[in-house]
Amino acid sequence: MIEPGTGPLGLDGGGLWYHLATFVLVALDAAFPPLPAELLVLGSGPLAADGRVSALWAWLAAAAGCLAGDLGLYWVFRRGLTRWLDRFRAGRWVHRNTVAVMNRLGRDATYASLLGLRFVSGGRTASVAAAGLAGVGPRPFAVLAAAGSGIWAAWMMLLGHLTQSVTGWPTWAATLASLVLGAAIAAALAGALTWADRRRGPRA
Predict the structure, then answer these.
(1) d(Cα 141, Cα 84) in Å, to the nearest integer?
(2) CB 26 within 8 A of CB 37
(3) Which of 48, 118, 159, 180, CA to CA, is 20 to 30 A from 188?
(4) Under 8 Å between Cβ of 29 and 62
């Protein structure tokens, strides 16, 4: 039996708009990290658990938005369109941090960074832009970006769901708590990457 407001695909009522907003904001978040896209993805976990949105469509919207944003930003840097990006304050931030990431990790680490750095704050933007500048081919980039997008979307939804399950808080409170928890985990990951980079020593 289909519950009111869900429909056979879970796209009735506000669910459709929620998924569309998730797709758009997550896509734009690639070039403009300050957007609150993560809150929508984190909130999808507890909302799906309550049956208010479709878990499948929430994951697809987040993963597809992430991949679309990655592809767009990749081609901006691959085609040398950074002058357009430099018109915006956030775009200049992306450009500066991309160069910094490439200098720290080296071009050989770009493939691995496409999967790992998206879990670090600002890492998705920097790693995707670095891939464009480093000349990573479109096909391997698309494969890695698609895999990273799917894993990231699933992780964010799971984090939101687990936070609410453990705390028993309302969706909005659990979403904010999971955002803080996710930031702490990302900071720990960034610290681990920095420590590993220092252990390897300076590159020739």
Answers:
(1) 22
(2) yes
(3) 48
(4) no
Please list the helix, strand and coil fractions of the chain in percent, rounded to the nearest 5, in that order.
Answer: 75, 0, 25
Q: Which of 67, 81, 84 is nearest to 29 (CA)?
A: 67
Of residues 64 and 84, more confidently modeled? 64
pLDDT of residue 201: 57
In tens, the pLDDT along 170-193 reads 988 989 999 899 888 877 876 776
92 token code pair? 């200049």
Q: In whole angstroms, how large is the CA radius of gyration of the chain?
A: 18
Can you tell me whether residue 52 is helix, strand or coil? coil
Name the DSSP letter for residue 171.
H
Helix 171-200 vs helix 138-167: angle between axes, to the nearest 10 degrees?
130
Q: How far apart are CA 161 and CA 64, in angstroms?
A: 20
Are the C-beta atoms of residues 30 and 73 closer than 8 Å to each other?
Answer: yes
Q: Is 192 exposed, middle or buried (0-12, 13-18, 19+ CB in 10 A)?
A: exposed
Q: What is the pLDDT of residues 88-138, one digit of tens each?
A: 776 777 667 666 666 665 555 556 667 777 887 677 887 888 888 777 889
Query: Is the CA virtual torsion 146, 152, 156, 158 positive or negative?
Result: positive
| Token duo for residue 63 | 């993963």
Helix (H) or strand (E) holding 54: none
How is the chain split into domains, by residue range?
Answer: 14-199
